[in-house]
Amino acid sequence: MRYTTAGQLWNIISPREFVDFSYTVDYKEGLLSCGISLDWSEKRSEFVRGYNHPCGWFCVPLKDSPNRSLLTGYIQTDLRGMIPQSAVDTAMASTLINFYGDLQKALQKA
Prior knowledge:
By secondary structure, the protein is α+β, with helices and mostly antiparallel strands. Helices cover about 25% and strands about 40% of the residues. It is built from one helix and eight strands.
């Protein structure tokens, strides 16, 4: 899977590109998805190649409320490049907040 991110914090953090192997299976009546970045020689010059260490997401239905699920994610991303740590912390926090907000909106429509 190849995906990109837009620049963050007024492009203090340049756009990033990731190439990951991802695998998803059924897990306890829900889903387990895991992945890791691959060394891929083809690069686009407008992006900095980031790297995802082994990561995973578990999505399992709640026993007390079958119409709801618990999503747990484990991620360790190396954005690479010269970036101040405070900028990374700020960008990652806002990116995750946006991700969960967008996911919640998409699921409410489904």
